[in-house]
Amino acid sequence: MNKNAALTAGSIPAPANGYSVPDIDSYAATLRQVTEPIEGTYRGTIVAADALSGLPPVLRRALTHAIGATSAPVWRGKSFTQRTGTNLWLGRRHQKAFGGFTQDINNGVLILDYNIDDNPRAVRPIRGDLWELGAGTYVGRMRYETNANSRTLIYFTLER
Fold first, then answer.
1. What is the pLDDT of residue 92?
2. pTM of the full predicted structure?
3. How far apart are CA 37 and CA 57, in angstroms?
4. Fewer C-beta neighbours within 10 Å, C or N terminus of the chain?
5. Which residues partner with 85 through β-bridges?
6. Bridge partners of 77?
7. Is 12 helix (H, G, I), strand (E, B) or coil?
8. Where would I find the H helices in the chain?
């Protein structure tokens, strides 16, 4: 774990902290269970990427910060309505919705399932998991699942 900015109960991971995916895996296991689907629009921030996990902390911190800063204008976050939702992306004049999902709760984790007909085939193996940090704040994990494998790609936060 990154010794300079240890994750403690209720802390919100940030790109500048340079956490690895294993750092946040351990942290997510300590978070509050989600008890019902969420609604509304949430601003998203990428806080860890699997491709960077094996790098030295100082390099991982710099690259994670750069990814968070450059993705922020493109990926805006997520919008939730009842038991469905979508990702919000930069558009020319307005945000664009792409990458729809359904919401379900399994063992206190809010599952975002992208395996729906409206999504292109390449998007359908994506699954998101959300844990609650506090009112209106979540930590999420994006995984790519196939019959043979499941791989965490990124961790992100969602805030109202």
1. 67
2. 0.86
3. 35
4. C
5. 80, 101
6. 43, 88
7. coil
8. 21-28, 57-71
For 41, the enclosing helix (H) or strand (E) is: strand 40-49
Q: Name the token pair of 4.
A: 């300079």
Closest by CA position to 111, among listed 124, 99, 102: 102
More confident residue, 155 or 16: 155
- pLDDT one-digit tens code per residue, 134-145: 888 999 999 999
Q: Which residues of 33-51 are buried (b: 16+ CB within 10 A; e: fewer)?
A: ebeebbeeebebbbbbbbe
CATH topology classification for 15-159: Lipocalin (2.40.128)
- DSSP class of 30: T
For residue 34, how far is the Cα from the chain centroid?
15
Nearest C-alpha neighbor of 133 from the set 18, 30, 4 = 30
The pLDDT score that the predictor gives to residue 5 is 60
Average pLDDT over residues 105-126: 95
